[in-house]
Design brief:
The chain is of the alpha+beta class. Helix content is 50%, strand content 12%. The protein has a three-stranded antiparallel β-sheet with strand order 5-6-7. A two-stranded antiparallel ribbon has the order 1-2. The longest helix has 29 residues. The protein is globular, with a radius of gyration of 21 Å. 44% of the residues are buried.
Amino acid sequence: VHPALHEPIRLDLDVDGEEIVDVDVAAGQVHRGIEWIGMNRNNPVQTIYLAERICGICSACHPFAFVLAVEMAAGIEVPPRADYIRTIVAEVERMHSHLLWAGVAGHEIGFESLFFYVWRIREKVMDLTEVLTGNRNSKAMYQIGGVRRDIAPDQLPIIRASLDVYKEAFDELKHLFLDDLTVKARCRDSGVLSTEDALKLCAAGPTARASGVPTDVRQDHPYAAYADLGVKAITPDLVTGYVVGDTYDRIIVRLLEVKQSIELIEKALDTMPEGPIITEPKIAKLLALLKKAEGEGVARVEAPRGENIHYVRMKAGEETLQAWKVRAPTYANLQVVPTMLKGQQIADVPIAFASIDPCMSCSNRAVVTNRTDDSVSFLNGEQLHAM
């Protein structure tokens, strides 16, 4: 493990020849202490910027969950138009994340031309993100009580034209991934996770849905504008008529979710109400309101990788957060990796592990040890908090 590597993780494999008989996942190589830093910022507004940088790809879903949790704790209502803009930005991020993953999947099976083709298409989403937010990556759209920027009338034709490009590209992407013999040979029956195991191990997001578990926070517990738009969890049997729960099924789910995101954005644009985009635009008044807040907030959003949870606790009279805890979807999905890999061949490991779309920067936690020559003792959560 080299500190310059982004997303480092170690998989310890016990093998019998080429067959994997046991797996241990060793995460936690690059813990940044981001929750602790957020609790020591001057106020929750400053913590939004940290939430956005938990993960470079998930720069919408983390601040989305964070501001929802703060709003719940502070009792702040969000204007309907802001809810729609939040939803549109979140779905653009889903398209980008799934296409980025699809390109990486091509790379992991040695299909480099597919990698470059998909990432060329991905550039269109980056352009669309820039139109909406002014940035290609860190979107800086979410604010406590609403959003920072409106969607102007002159932006609508550009957004719709971008979506039309993806409608045209979708059939070709579907053909390249689902009909190609190389992709089928490498991904069908690779990294199988049964419906029963997905439920037992609490898999999240496309990993769970590809195993036939129709769970989706947007469907089960709608937030923002999702209750108005209507979302149905996508499972692979919509295409094949059956569920295997393998890497190939995870490709199906993510491709169909790109198409679903296009439809949701179009519907949101068609039905988005007029009105303000933020409850309190003056930062000084917002900070005064937050300083009076007391209570807890737990927010869940459906990130591209699955259910993302942010917990905050606030105390009246204090500007800093009393507590901030993040549980990203990869933290849940790492639990399924041993089940997916046991019985597989060594050559299946890169694509099977990549099929959960792991994000280690979202998931890493600290382990502190007191090491002597004879023993190693670990500090538990209570001791770490006391320190």
